[in-house]
Amino acid sequence: MSDEHETTGNGGVDDELSLPKATVQKLITEMLPVDILCAKDTRDLLIDCCVEFIHLIASEANEICEKESKKTIAAEHVISALKALGFESYLAEVQEVFKEHRKLQKDREKKSSRLENSGITEEELLRQQELLFEQSRAKYQAQQQS
């Protein structure tokens, strides 16, 4: 983010919204052929366009969310916003990414709950960890003495 300030239409001053330049540069580099370079001002323009696009979609999703008397913007609101703004061509890819995201979230929850459902207390886990460290130290020291 930048230290510059931008005056918004409502008369207030907000920190300028941005995306990490290094990340955007990496994306650009991955997408372009190796013999094509992207000027810094072009990268900055792309960042501005991306931020504006995100703001547009988020604003529309927020309106849809408010119409449904919801307090949290859900993925379905974003998908509806894309439709409402005429970005139907993005829907298939967005829905595929959303499906992958949900799958990753479920996998994380399974890993998390597996630990919680193991029936082992945190103290016991720490004791087991210390025992493993002790065994590892002993093995290392034995190797050093040989």
Question: Mind explaining what this structure looks like?
Answer:
The protein is mainly α and 146 residues long. It is built from five helices and two strands, in the order ββααααα. The chain has a two-stranded antiparallel ribbon. Helix 1 (21-31) packs across helix 2. The protein is flat and about 70 Å long. 3% of the residues are buried.
Alpha carbon gap, first and last residue = 55 Å
Structural class: mainly alpha
**Global Rg:** 25 Å
Report the β-strand fraction as a percent range.
under 5%
Q: Please provide the ordered H/E string of secondary-structure elements.
A: EEHHHHH
According to DSSP, the number of beta strands is: 2
> Strand arrangement, largest sheet?
1-2
Mean pLDDT: 86
Instruction: Give helix % range.
Output: 55-70%
List low-pLDDT spans: 1-14
Counting DSSP H or I runs of 4 or more residues, the number of helices is 5
Shape: flat
The description of the largest β-sheet is: 2 strands, antiparallel
List keywords for this structure.
mainly alpha, 68% helix, 5 helices, 146 residues
What secondary-structure arrangement, pairings included, does this model have?
Blueprint: E1 5-7, E2 13-15, H1 21-31, H2 40-67, H3 75-84, H4 91-116, H5 122-145
Antiparallel strand pairs: 1-2
Helix pairs in contact: 1-2, 2-3, 3-4
